[in-house]
Design brief:
This protein has 117 residues and is mainly alpha-helical. 35% of the residues lie in helices and 5% in strands. It has helices spanning 21-28, 68-93, 108-114, and strands spanning 37-39, 53-55.
């Protein structure tokens, strides 16, 4: 999760093998302040938090197409979500979660400094 200034607020534990995003989010148990807006991708289909406004792109129905207003809504959501994907890409690019940092005794210090947690 990131906030509106693209600072990483929460990372769930990494898990090995296949696991759906939705089930991992439910197990993490992270709470969001009431009244917040949550932009999520199609991997979280059915994920719900009480008191939170959720924006999720509409899936194209099988054998049909989305209407122009639905396409416009999906474009608006994806223009916001691209910032989220760039923040996730930064975490992956720096391999800050995956690799052990050997030059410091407190590896979490680098993560909190780079990503302003």
């Amino acid at each position: 999760m990131i906030n509106e200034t693209c600072h990483v607020c929460f990372l769930s534990d990494t898990c090995e093998g296949k696991a759906s995003d939705k089930s991992m989010a439910e197990l993490a148990g992270y709470t969001v302040p009431p009244g917040s807006c949550l932009y999520q991708d199609k991997g979280f289909q059915g994920f719900y938090l009480p008191g939170i406004t959720i924006f999720q792109p509409k899936k194209t129905p099988r054998g049909a197409e989305l209407t122009p207003p639905e396409k416009a809504t999906n474009r608006r959501i994806s223009s916001i979500r691209i910032r989220i994907e760039h923040a996730i890409g930064g975490v992956k690019r720096y391999r800050i979660v995956k690799d052990r940092i050997r030059l410091l005794t407190h590896g979490s210090l680098i993560f909190s400094t780079v990503f302003n947690i």
